[in-house]
């Protein structure tokens, strides 16, 4: 027998009628309250997730631009900092879940041009290289040199040639 049929079969002046009406109202409102509670939890979870992602972005940006760290070391450092921040603010998360958050934050920052994470190429000091090695590393070096430097070099070469000629003429005499 359905609850509505039971309510209709009971005398409307009886206290049982009012108890059945109360049960009916509670049974109708229970799914609404459950969905309201679930939506509240989901909204809280969404806002908490957004907060964690924003914090991850702030942590990832300076670490990604650091020089001298391998990618895995940067990731670990970012996860460590994010985990420390969240535990300090009493947000309970598992450390293993933060790897995905850090990677998402990194990809977001990279896609939107906030990162300059290309590592510079390390080369020996120019003094330690031969001229050929130096030219191989900078094939268009002449295009970037200052004109005054080129003129000074040419003037020095002319002076050297003149001195050689003078010495040769002295020796020939």
SSE topology:
Blueprint: H1 3-9, H2 15-64, H3 71-88, H4 98-111, H5 131-137, H6 141-144, H7 147-172
Helix pairs in contact: 1-2, 2-3, 2-4, 3-4
State the gist of this model.
By secondary structure, the chain is mainly α. The chain has helices at 3-9, 15-64, 71-88, 98-111, 131-137, 141-144, 147-172.
Which labels suit this protein?
173 residues; mainly alpha; 73% helix
Q: How does this structure look, described?
A:
- Helix 1 packs antiparallel against helix 2, helix 2 crosses helix 3 (71-88) and helix 2 (15-64) crosses helix 4.
- Helix content is 73%, strand content 0%.
- It is mostly helical and 173 residues long.
- The chain has helices at residues 3-9, 15-64, 71-88, 98-111, 131-137, 141-144, 147-172.
- It is rod-shaped, with a radius of gyration of 39 Å.
- The protein has seven helices and no strands.
């Amino acid at each position: 027998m359905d609850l509505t049929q039971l309510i209709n079969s009971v005398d409307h002046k009886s206290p049982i009628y009012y108890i059945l009406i109360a049960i009916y109202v509670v049974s109708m409102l229970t799914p609404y309250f459950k969905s309201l509670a679930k939506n509240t939890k989901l909204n809280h979870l969404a806002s908490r997730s957004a907060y964690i992602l924003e914090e991850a972005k702030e942590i990832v940006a300076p670490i990604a631009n650091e020089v001298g760290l391998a990618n895995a070391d940067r990731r670990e450092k970012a996860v460590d900092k994010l985990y420390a921040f969240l535990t300090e603010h009493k947000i309970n998360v598992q450390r293993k879940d933060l790897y995905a958050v850090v990677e998402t934050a990194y990809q977001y920052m990279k896609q939107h041009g906030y990162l300059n994470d290309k590592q510079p190429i390390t080369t020996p000091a120019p003094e330690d290289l031969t001229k050929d090695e130096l030219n191989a590393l900078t094939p268009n070096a002449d295009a970037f040199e200052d004109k005054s430097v080129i003129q000074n070099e040419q003037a020095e070469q002319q002076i050297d040639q003149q001195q050689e000629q003078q010495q040769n003429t002295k020796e020939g005499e």
